[in-house]
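Appendix B: complex inputs.
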Amino acid sequence: MDGDSHAWLWDTPQFLKGIGPKKARELQSRGVVDVYDLLNFLPRGYRDYRAVLSLSEAMDGVEASFRVRVVTPPKRAYRRRFYRAEVEDDSGLAELVWFSNKLYGPSADLQPGQQIWIVGKPSKRRTVMSFSHPRIFSDMSRVDIEPMYRGIPWLSGGLRKAVKELGKRLQAADPLPAELRDAWQVPDWRAAFTQVHAPGTNDPLEDVYAFRSNGYRRVAADAFFSWFLGMGMRRRSMQRVETRPIQVGDDIVDQLRAALPFALTGDQQAALDAILQDMNQSTPMFRLVQGDVGSGKTAVALLAAAVAARAGGQVALLAPTEILAGQHARFFDEVLGGMGIRITRLTGSLSAIRRKEVLHMIRSGAVDIVIGTHALLQDAVEFQDLRLVVIDEEQRYGVMQRSALRSKGGAPHTLLLSATPIPRSLSLVLLGDTDVTVIREKPAGRAPVETRIIPEDGKREVLEHIKTELDAGHKVFFLYPRVDDQPDSDQASVVEMHQRLADYFGADQVGLLHGRMAGDEKDRMLRSLKDGRISILVTTTVIEVGVDVPDATILVIGHPDNFGLSQLHQIRGRIGRGNLPGTCYLLVDDGTGDDALARLDVMTQTNDGFEIAEADLELRGPGSMLGTRQSGIPDIHPVLLRRFSDLATEVRASAEAILDEDPHLTAPQWRRVREILQRKWDMSAEA
Ligand code: ADP
Ligand code: MG
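Resulting structure:
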């Protein structure tokens, strides 16, 4: 960590004060591998503690902060396993309690007469307000505003400290030269990350709280910059690459299209036309088809794949889950199998013998379309003549994985499918007019999905509705956030719900599906539902993306406030896929707060993915897109992109000018930019 080198950016956060190996591991499990990731782990919102109340104003159950004097420091209650202290201010008295055998941190050091701030949610015990496990600060001026991070409470203080500790080093490591910062009107790294992670009263707090401040503008600018540099490098390298055009006669396209069980919508046809035209060029296609859940992207991919196969090439289709790979393989086989197109599946759950066979078939050209999961990316998978790569739900993949697949062919065409809502105006700026197709129009005859919030005492009504739907031969999903019961949680798990529903509806009607089951078992379970051997499936978010059961009409989501709105929207996409009207029930627990209810209410108001993303940002914060680095759009919440879209044109022009002069960014001043592109975007493989 010498002053000159910026290697610390790529170090584990473990070297920062207060972050030991354990916390570093926790961060890693959330996709935060190095300090750069940590800095870009955005808050989901902020808390403002500046409004300090007096104890007489304390309200039962309402979190607030108070400035108090210690009357009696914590004492262990006689033979009991808790500590109790007394504090006062000019308006009254309160007690603090800790249910534990030992005190840690500032509470262990409290002295009589000491002035402290406490933050907590009091509850009225007899006549006195009682705070259990309050947070204690000796100097509130440093923590009056606090960012909150999804799933990692200690980061509120942790990142503030990290930003302070890094201080000047952040300034020195800023990859963006001052001229560009001035031109784009964005602050340097130190100022930006301080404003995002450690805002103070000098900052425009309203803007900070709304993710609209210059700190966020800088984060967006960085994402745009990486994006446009990457795009520019890719375009420059693609223009050098030659590939063989894929072409078949119109009669063959007509014949393939006729094999589908439905007619394409206008938007699907337009997407297909664009793809066929791209594939018929001698530079490789790189096209993103973006469409909301249920808009029918699979059919477009199927036709593109069939055309490539008909032209004598091989196709690889990558899907994020085993379930989805199985579903696609069956759909492709149903439609194309009869026409002599050979389809096979390659997933992690194949037996060793079968896997060897499949690998051999792929290598020898005995199969045309391979549909698989991550297993497709392994080195052992070699194609005879890979001409087209299709990546479904591409927002789930990193750039690295995407290019791993592409490198298996000479220079295959690439088709990306995504449900991430990017507004058309922005996709034009980001991708240019030619590389993105948006499917807006849903297939005709789609009945709407109604979403309703149901309190605990409303369950009976839901069960009645389910019975009616089951009688009509329709299917039902129950989705719960966790697999097992956890001792510290009163939330039902899928295992428990499966038991209860099996008791109620009959064991042979109700199936269970979750991520800990073996791959082929999962696949079998989903098939049982599709085929009607069972009619109710109790499941987790393993079915979040892609799963298609057109006659499922009811989706019940338990503990819905565990999910983000965009995630709920994805999940809700499991129903309303056919022409039957659907109902999505959000079963809220009695204790659910007003904030959470207001957030969930958005789901009842709109079915538009973009509106939901916008509301999600406002209500929950941009969180972090880490771990879901997107190859089809910049690595940042789409709503931040739109908010700062005024940057796009200018940043793109700068990126192009830089690349014109220095196509591989070899000049010393771009060293860190190059590092970021290589490490976080795997651009070395692109260039
Ligand atoms: P997504 O865009 O979310 O991947 P899918 O491709 O899975 O959506 O399509 C959703 C459902 O709509 C599927 O059941 C599919 O068979 C059906 N579908 C797709 N296109 C059409 C169409 N043109 N007409 C009728 N149904 C369609
Ligand atoms: Mg899909």
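Residues 625-632 have pLDDT under 50 and may be disordered.
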